[in-house]
Amino acid sequence: MNDTQAIQLLHEMLAIESLSGAESRHAHFLTRQMIANGYTKTYVDEAGNAVGEMGAADAPRTVMLLGHQDTVPGRIPVRMEDGRLFGRGAVDAKGPLAAFTTAVARLGPRPGVRFVVVGATEEEAASSKGARFIRDRFLAEGVPATCIIGEPSGWERITLGYKGRLLADLHIEGPCGHSAGDRLGVNEQAVAWWQQVIGYAKIKSEEQAGPFRQLLPSLRSMASGADGLREWADLRVGLRLPPGCGIDALQTDLSALAQQVTTAPATWRLACSGQEPAYVADKNTPLARALLAGIRREGGKPGYLLKTGTSDMNVVGPAWGCPIAAYGPGDSSLDHTPEEHIELEEYLRAIRVLEGALRAG
Fold first, then answer.
1. Which domain holds residue 261?
2. Based on the domain organization, do 151 and 171 belong to the same domain?
3. Does residue 141 have an active-site annotation?
4. What are phi and psi of 331, to 5 degrees?
5. Each residue of 9-36: pLDDT tens digit?
């Protein structure tokens, strides 16, 4: 694949909407493109992942390139302007996935190596359905020798760690009352819980330097209503977890805070989901060194990142225990924004970095 074809591939990928849980059309398109560009084998697996393999199935080493094909909602007209390609997923994370696909196509079969490129499903959802399926499959078949996660790091950077995640949904309901009464309504009680969560996170983070080591809460959604007899309030809070944060203990503490702020006759219910511990990879690996060397060959000044978000590295990294890093073109500050776009020169540089790193082994 030449540069023009690589750009066309990404352009066509962006033109196909692939929200979490609705990736089928995109998966079949990508596998067709893979087979047309020399992949040994392509298929859509039981989890809806788009999978392309280059090399013999019985090769002694498997190199996994795990990206994701789903995006968050929000249609952005696909267009090229001043060397930039706009579209939902340009950065997060069809740009990195297209870079994986192109780099492996350019390399072709390599003796003793099987490259497996995966466009996983539901990474943007709390389920990470596709990554969990791939994780379990390769635990049964034999873990990869190395793994690159397809997420935007910028072409000169390598991401070694991601924070963990917990989603907490609080529901408070009770009988309606007059606003002039002396009883707190369910809305006030829900807001009081959110304020308690903020204070709790601040105390937990007081002696921790930098956001990667801190417990960071965010208010994701809120809603309330009443039918004249009963009223209710719902809050969804997301917490980004630092390394070493005990998820079971955190859930217990969040429940205790809900108990403190809820006053009878109101009742509360807390449901937690999306539990994912933080994960930090070793930087002293052949994979990291190969990526660093690839960046330098392209004239870059490489460096490492620790991200405050969560990725499929959190899912597969602890289970496989192989050398792992995240790499891909794109400015992650554009993730999920209406201005999402990728610099085409950066995209092409990242392809060359990957090609060199994979060739080096």
1. 165-276
2. no
3. no
4. -95, 110
5. 999 999 999 999 999 999 999 999 999 9
Residue 293: predicted pLDDT: 97
Are the beta carbons of 41 and 52 closer than 8 angstroms?
yes
pLDDT number for residue 360: 85
pLDDT value of residue 315: 97
Are 120 and 260 within one domain?
A: no
- Residue 275: both structure tokens together: 């539990």
Q: Which residue has the tokens 């992650």?
A: 332
Domain boundary among 276, 295, 314: 276
pLDDT band at 181 (very low <50, low <70, confident <90, very high): low
User: Catalytic one among 123, 173, 312, 346?
Assistant: 123
Q: Which H or E run includes 290?
A: helix 286-297
Q: Is 282 a catalytic residue?
A: no
Q: Which of 70, 276, 340, 355 is catalytic?
A: 70
For residue 127, the SS3 value is: coil
| Alpha-carbon distance values, 184 to 199, 236, 263 (Å) | 20, 20, 8
pLDDT over 90 at 184, yes or no: no
pLDDT of residue 155: 97
Number of structural domains found in the chain? 2
- Indicate whether 83 and 185 sit together in one domain: no
CATH, residue 23: 3.40.630.10
pLDDT on residue 164 = 97
CATH code at 270? 3.30.70.360
